[in-house]
């Protein structure tokens, strides 16, 4: 017990510090690292900003339309959804050329995996499968009302849900068979990135731990007010932003406990591990905070 207490105190003492605040545009939400840079989708500005990690400066802005939200990379391109235009856009990182396809009412999240690009359509209640080369919609699978976040784990595609849902869905990418995994907590929406197990944000302030292989709920933790998209950090903790409190919570996944919290910008929304740092988007503001994350 004494050793554990000392370890926790040491971790708290090594609280991350901000090394840069990069102005990207109004409403930075989704972000990804690819092609030697960090890319950020700015909802209200309607742009994608390229951040050079060597200089912490925006070196390019690709203009789209307001409503751009979730962003990922794959198949040599950037992929971003626009919830106002019901669209998925492929963006060529070098030329900035854009190609758009309509995917269904209110696209929410996007993921590139298993040779396809996948999009959840909130209002349509579908998981949309798109060919990354032709941009042709290959399939629309009814997965249930208000699908939200996406994650790949244990050979399957996992889908979160909003509002009154209390289960997540596992979709077989080959057969499209759907399996429900009951969590017992409403609105299990976002999946933390970079973890082996699933860590799912639900009920605004609950983090649910699930084994994706056995489909068993391993535990849950309540903290904060309105949690958003987390990620596994260099030091082995989970960084979970709280967009209502404008902070990031650090969670020790082995002990299942909150270690500490620290300011992270207005509407702290998404945590991204990239280029030896942690990056947090400020959805209610217009910048991205870069943290020097310590190792254990």
In N-to-C order, the SSE pattern is: HEEEEEEEEEEEEEEEEEEEEEEEEEEEE
Report the average pLDDT across residues.
Answer: 95
- Figure out the total of helices: 1
**Biggest sheet overview:** 4 strands, antiparallel
- Total DSSP E strands: 28
Can you offer a commentary on this structure?
The protein is mainly beta and 296 residues long. Helices cover 4% and strands 55% of the residues. The chain contains one helix and 28 strands. The protein has one helix spanning 2-13, and strands at 17-23, 28-34, 37-42, 47-52, 57-63, 68-74, 77-82, 87-91, 98-102, 107-113, 116-121, 126-130, 137-142, 147-153, 156-161, 167-171, 178-182, 190-191, 198-202, 206-211, 216-222, 231-232, 238-242, 247-252, 257-263, 268-274, 277-282, 287-292. The strands form seven sheets. A four-stranded antiparallel sheet has the order 1-28-27-26, with no helix packed on it. A four-stranded antiparallel sheet has the order 2-3-4-5, with no helix packed on it. β10 and β11 (116-121) form a beta hairpin. The longest helix has 12 residues, at 2-13. The radius of gyration is 18 Å and the shape is globular. The protein starts with a helix and ends with a strand.
Q: Can you describe this structure in just a few lines?
A:
With 296 residues, the protein is mainly β. The chain contains one helix and 28 strands.
Structural key phrases:
single chain, 296 residues, mainly beta, four-stranded antiparallel beta sheet, 28 strands, globular
Summarize the helices and strands and which ones pair or pack.
Layout: H1 2-13, E1 17-23, E2 28-34, E3 37-42, E4 47-52, E5 57-63, E6 68-74, E7 77-82, E8 87-91, E9 98-102, E10 107-113, E11 116-121, E12 126-130, E13 137-142, E14 147-153, E15 156-161, E16 167-171, E17 178-182, E18 190-191, E19 198-202, E20 206-211, E21 216-222, E22 231-232, E23 238-242, E24 247-252, E25 257-263, E26 268-274, E27 277-282, E28 287-292
